[in-house]
């Protein structure tokens, strides 16, 4: 009978306290893959009392094997995550107590409150935007009136200047006809 078969039975004898099992042997005993065992060893290292053999490999004694079995039970049977298992060991076996989840009614009520709050904010923003737009339209109307008034004043001044300029040119032309240089001697 092999070492693994001995450990799988309830009556294993006196040699159970002196065992040194490799990762592969432990994986066969608890029916998990070696990669899963190595992952647990990596993630939960402070809580698994591993030893090194003469070759430098990690080996499991009885206490480490019991911890691995407990990890499997918590992880596979009770659906604990690695973090929950870590909490379990860190608190000396206190079960992880997840925060209670909200019921559908509570979730919908919270969502409805959020939607109402957001709708109220949007209405207020819309009202503020409407007031701003009205004020902006008033200012644009005043500005357009100012521009129209200034353009009209400019056109009037320009028409007046053109009229005065024509009058000056007409007077100059009349004066120059009266005093032609050849008529100067007459």
From TrEMBL:
List, alphabetically, the InterPro entries matched. Answer: DNA-bd_dom_put_sf (IPR009061), DUF3967 (IPR025052), MerR-type_HTH_dom (IPR000551)
Taxonomically, which superkingdom?
Bacteria
Annotated SUPFAM superfamilies: Putative DNA-binding domain (SSF46955)
User: Which intervals hold domain HTH merR-type?
Assistant: 22-89
Report the transmembrane regions from the record. none
For the DUF3967 domain, which residue ranges apply? 150-185
User: What is the protein name for this chain?
Assistant: MerR family transcriptional regulator
Organism for this UniProt entry: Thalassorhabdus alkalitolerans
Starting at the broadest rank, the lineage of the source organism is:
Bacteria, Bacillati, Bacillota, Bacilli, Bacillales
